[in-house]
Each structure stands twice: as C-alpha cells, then as structure tokens.
Design brief:
By secondary structure, this protein is mostly helical. Helix content is about 70%, strand content about 0%.
C-alpha cells in the first residue's frame, strides 16, 4: 500500500488508480463527516461523490507541506456540505415564498379573445425584426421608450419610429384582414 505522500504524487500526476486508492482509504471518513453535517445519508453520498470529483479536478491544489490528504479531503467535503445546506435553504425559501402567494383563480378566456391573441401574434411575426422587437418590449415587457433604446442599442428616435410604424402596420393588416369587426374588442388602447 502506498503512503499518502506517494499517493498524492500519483494523484497529482493524473493517475486514475490513485484516485480509487484515495477513495478506498479516505472515502468512509469523508462520508461520515458529510453525514454528520447533513444528517441525511443520500445527501451525504452525493457530497462524498462531489468531494472526490473536486479532489480529482483540483488535484494540483493539494500540497502535502500544508497538511494531510485526509485533511484536504475533509476540507473539500465540508465546503461541499455547506454548499448543499445553503442550496437546500434557498430551495426551501423559494418553495415557501411560492406557497405563500395567493392562488389566482383561472381566468376563462372567450374564444374571441383567444383568436385575437393568435391574430396579433401572427401579425407581429410578419413585421420586420426591429419593429417587432420594439413592440414586444413595449407591450409584453412594458418598457418605456428610453428603456427600449437602452435594451436594443437603438437611438431613441429610431425606437419611436419603429413603434409608430409597427403599430401602423399592425393596424393596417388588422383592418385589411377584417379582424376589427363589430363588437370584438382588443382591450384597452395604449398611446405611443
């Protein structure tokens, strides 16, 4: 059996069998620490695996002058366990936030409203790219003209022109296709 110094030299040289030997020698200690920190065998096994992957990819960072191989591995395992704990806490906070949100009753859309939305989407696809993008930013993302200019890198005057022309094109196509008939409403209008 190799000493830790010889094992470290082989590991740093990229010898994959050395990694297996390191795992055989120190895997149980890493798993024990991970399980003590996490309190969960499945998470501890995941952290143990991640620890040895990190040890392999960061093998050049091991310096036998600074400590033992076991100490180095336990340090990696501790950091990985802390990362797992933090990630779980974030996930828990996110789940609690989502659960705390009031449920919104589903809104039934009328068939006419669905058809209108499909027609608008189809007409938007027919517009030139920059006009379509400025309209989407204005109406779907609710950005102001200066915000659209910043987001697209276009001058403010060009943004205003694209919006004006895009709306005019949509209006013309909408009227030509006969989509604005009778009592069908497209919702509140927005002045550009």
């Amino acid at each position: 059996m190799s000493s830790d110094d010889e094992l470290a030299r082989r590991l740093r040289a990229g010898d994959e069998t050395a990694l297996r030997e390191v795992y055989d020698r120190h895997g149980a200690a890493v798993l024990y620490l991970a399980q003590r920190l996490l309190g969960n065998r499945a998470d501890a096994e995941d952290v143990t695996q991640v620890t040895f992957v990190a040890a392999w990819t960061g093998r050049d960072g091991f310096d036998p002058q600074r400590g033992t191989m076991l100490g180095w591995l336990l340090g990696i395992a501790r950091r990985k366990a802390v990362d797992r704990i933090r990630s779980s806490a974030r996930d828990q906070r996110t789940a609690e936030t989502v659960q705390a949100q009031p449920s919104v009753p589903p809104v039934e859309e009328s068939p006419e409203r669905i058809v209108d939305r499909l027609l608008v989407a189809d007409e938007l696809e027919r517009l030139p790219g920059e006009q379509r993008r400025t309209l989407e930013l204005a109406f779907f993302d609710d950005l102001t003209h200066p915000q659209i200019a910043e987001a697209t890198g276009l001058p403010l005057g060009t943004v205003k022109s694209h919006l004006r022309r895009g709306m005019a094109n949509l209006r013309r196509r909408w009227e030509v296709d006969g989509a604005t008939s009778g009592s069908r409403s497209t919702g509140p209008s927005r002045t550009l």
